[in-house]
Write a structure and sequence with these properties.
Number of helices: 18
Helix content: 40-55%
Structural class: alpha/beta
CATH architecture of the largest domain: 3-Layer(aba) Sandwich
Number of strands: 11
Distance between the termini: 74 Å
Oligomer: single chain
CATH topology of the largest domain: Dna Topoisomerase Vi A Subunit, Chain: A, domain 2
Largest sheet: 6 strands, mixed
């Protein structure tokens, strides 16, 4: 094609690709009325020598632009050369608006839908006209089904009229409102738009901003000791709000914190022991359970960057927590069982790690043993894992 021989020339296909990149970077700002228009796309400059040497390719380029039938104003120039005479060549493509760019790159329907919905929201709440939050959520405006937009408007309207209701989300008298609909992404939209409506900049937690009651934090605990279960009617598996777990009439001597739920569920009975599992970074909640203050605690997680970051949080919540099966020999001995950590931990460096744990974390993070190496705890042979836990927890 022309671009490979005469790279200064832009074919229609290349112009669409250039515009698609520009649209991807600018469409949110354009939705808010920003941008300088018309947008001019130079198609290239030619010399008489280039035209003489590349006549078939130049003719192909000219013919391609002559067949242009899309939106935009295609401008041509007249070039006069001593040997070739007068030549009419495409010079630039001018696009009058973001709508025209969207049409050229195949995003017309989404952009115009976002424009319409943005105008409707501004008509309802004029304060949103100058709010960057609305354009920030371009994908919501462009892609939400009509029912979701109506539900969003109804929710914002109700929350503005009832700023301190103290209700749970599921109690709101808004058609179709439930916790499944109001997932984390939609909560981000609601939070941003409420802040814009109220002229508030500091970020605030969703429930606080909406004047809603936050659902109680719940923990799951396994009583792995028959003596402990005797105080609770023989129950082994408990899940309850954090405050109720903290008030349980149990006095364990050992605790095992397991990163993944399935590994925790499979644990056998262990004397004097309770187990927590599947908490992730919520492991910090264990600091609010008074009967864990003096227990001998172990943490068993994946050997990956997130596993060690969670271990650091666990050690801050329950001082003295020791790790088990999270060392270099365990990792290297089970090389055949390695998996891939697609998104390594990238937040603040974990605290509270021992020297050996920190060295292993650093080695994983810097790909000493390969890119994204991880050893999930479920991969370890179960008998081997249980033997190591019994030795670490019970000294057997």
């Amino acid at each position: 094609m022309v671009s490979s021989v005469a790279p200064r020339l832009l074919s229609p296909e290349a112009a669409r690709r250039w515009l698609a990149r520009r649209y991807a970077n600018q469409h949110r700002a354009w939705l808010g009325g920003e941008g300088s228009w018309p947008l001019s796309v130079p198609l290239g400059e030619l010399t008489e020598k280039a035209v003489s040497e590349l006549t078939p390719l130049i003719r192909e380029w000219i013919d391609a632009w002559s067949a242009w039938s899309d939106v935009g104003q295609l401008e041509w120039v007249e070039r006069r050369w001593s040997r070739l005479g007068s030549q009419r060549l495409p010079a630039r493509l001018r696009l009058a608006s973001a709508v025209e760019v969207a049409r050229v790159v195949g995003e017309s329907e989404r952009f115009e839908r976002a424009q319409t919905r943005r105008a409707q929201l501004i008509e309802r709440w004029p304060a949103l006209a100058s709010a960057p939050q609305l354009c920030r959520h371009f994908d919501c405006l462009a892609d939400y089904p009509d029912a979701d937009v109506q539900r969003l408007v109804a929710l914002l309207t109700w929350l503005e009229a009832n700023r301190s209701s103290g209700l749970y989300l599921r109690q709101l008298p808004v058609a179709g409102m439930d916790t499944k609909w109001c997932d984390s992404r939609r909560r981000a939209v609601v939070t941003d738009l409420l802040l814009a409506l109220r002229g508030q900049n500091p970020p605030r937690e969703f429930h606080e901003l909406c004047g809603l009651r936050r659902p109680p934090l719940r923990l799951r605990v396994f009583l792995l000791c028959p003596d402990l279960r005797a105080h609770l009617g023989g129950l082994r598996d408990l899940e309850a709000p954090l405050q109720q777990i903290a008030a349980l009439p149990v006095r364990p001597t050992r605790a095992l914190i397991v990163e993944n739920l399935e590994s925790g569920i499979a644990l056998p009975d262990l004397p004097g022991c309770v187990a927590f599992m599947g908490l992730g970074f919520g492991v910090s909640l264990l600091a609010e359970i008074p009967w864990l203050e003096s227990v001998a605690a172990l943490y068993w997680g994946d050997i990956d960057t997130h596993g060690f970051a969670i271990l650091g949080h666990a050690r801050a919540a329950v001082p003295g927590v020791r790790s088990v099966l999270m060392d270099a020999p365990t990792l290297l001995h089970h090389r055949a069982l390695w998996g891939h950590e697609a998104t390594p931990y990238s937040a603040s460096p974990p605290l509270n790690l021992t020297g050996a744990e920190q060295a292993l974390f650093d080695g994983l993070r810097t790909n000493v043993w390969g890119e994204g190496v991880r050893l999930e705890q479920e991969r370890l042979p179960w008998a081997e894992a249980m033997a190591a836990i019994r030795v670490a927890l019970l000294g057997e």
